[in-house]
Amino acid sequence: MVHVMTAGLYELMIIVYAVSIILYVVDYLYKVPKAKRRAFWLVSLVWVAQTLFLVNFVFETKRFPILSLYEGIFFYAWLLITISIALHCFARADLPVFFVNILAFIFTTIHTFAPNNTNVVATTMVSEMLLIHIGFGILAYAAFSLSFVFAILYILLYRVLKKKKFSKQWTRLPSLDATTRWIHFSALVGICLLVVSLILGSEWALLTIDDVSILDFKIVGSFILVLLYSIILYASRLGRLIGTQYAWVHVYAYLFLIINFFLGNSLSNFHVWY
């Protein structure tokens, strides 16, 4: 997406984002409300800049920036920043906001070095169904990312409570019950979004592409993701996955998601454009 934005401005945005992360760390270690407020406004500034880049891309190309891995990473990072702002404004959860921003910063940086290899042929095959399919898929990944963040927080909070070393830095964590509810809700939303994405993608492929293989690496990986998260939630409902076990399986599931996101695209013969 750098072809529709000034590289220098994008690099400046990353520097601003890095400063906001540092301010969040300062607030966490020394409990400085002013640092947290400034960090939030810097993150908001980054979000505004990314939104302007996104809108500019749409106006120049007449399509949404999700047709390649390069563009998908940008949209995914933008979604994560949006989630962090929403958490700050509505959930008032400091550490979850910090961890979501760490994740968003990592993918914003990855986007800078990712190859821009949007397939020109693919742009001629774009339809509303395809864009909704890809968009819902990335939204699902963002929801699963949130379940990953709260799973990490659950593990940290559980260890702090177990060791009874509850310092002022940990007072901003939600309760174990609240964290579990966030994990469950985020994963459930992710499953619903990914199922819709797979249905639309399958329908589009059958109507548009000849000789579609259901054994394509990305297709198989996506269905495994739905099955994996569904089994996790069902096992939790039966009481077979509780506490830190439940949190850890969400961490492992997210790692599989990341593998499917990057490796799946490179090994897929079907998803050659994103």
Please provide a written account of the structure.
- By secondary structure, the protein is mostly helical.
- Helix content is 78%, strand content 0%.
- The chain has helices at 7-30, 33-61, 69-91, 94-113, 120-123, 128-163, 176-208, 217-237, 243-267.
- Helix 1 (7-30) packs antiparallel against helix 2 (33-61), helix 3 (69-91) runs antiparallel to helix 4 and helix 8 runs antiparallel to helix 9.
- The chain is flat and about 60 Å long.
- The model is unreliable at 1-5 (pLDDT under 50).
Q: For the CA atoms, what is the radius of gyration?
A: 19 Å
Broad structural category? mainly alpha
Biggest sheet architecture: none
Strand content: under 5%
What features would you highlight for this structure?
274 residues; mainly alpha; 2 domains; 9 helices; 0% strand
Short structural description:
The protein is an all-alpha fold. It is 78% helix and 0% strand.
What is the strand and helix layout of this fold?
Blueprint: H1 7-30, H2 33-61, H3 69-91, H4 94-113, H5 120-123, H6 128-163, H7 176-208, H8 217-237, H9 243-267
Helix pairs in contact: 1-2, 1-4, 2-3, 3-4, 3-6, 4-6, 6-7, 6-9, 7-8, 8-9
